[in-house]
Amino acid sequence: MVDSRCMEILGMLERAPAIVAGIAAQVPESLVRVRSGPFALVEHVWHLEDLAHLNEIADLLADLMPAHPMIAGLRALAAGGPRSSRAA
Fold it and tell me: Of 16, 43, 60, 78, which residue is 20 to 30 A from 85 by alpha carbon distance?
């Protein structure tokens, strides 16, 4: 059985895209590519889209809860499936 902490973490992961989108929506477009430290906001968001480890994450989740629908979505993304559009 999956403990409540694991379910809490999965819930946070599922909410993360909406949270990031909400934060990004508050940044004026003129500042999206301006560096504040080593990276600009757009670069941070690109790093969040890194697909290199999605199969590993899916494998870990599958060990905990094989039927969770997020697993199929992660595998589809890792295989180059649906991606958000991004402007460079």
Answer: 60
- Evaluate whether residue 85 is within a structural domain: no
Residue 88 within a domain: no
Classify the C-alpha dihedral 27-81-16-38 as positive or negative.
Answer: negative
Residue by residue, pLDDT tens for the chain (88 residues) are: 456 776 777 777 778 778 888 888 898 888 888 887 777 888 877 777 665 577 777 888 888 888 887 778 777 777 765 544 444 3
Gap between the Cα atoms of 60 and 65, Å rounded: 9
Query: CA 53, 54, 59, 61: dihedral to nearest 10 degrees?
Result: 120
DSSP string for residues in 37-57: SSSBHHHHHHHHT--TTHHHH
Total tally of structural domains belonging to the chain: 1
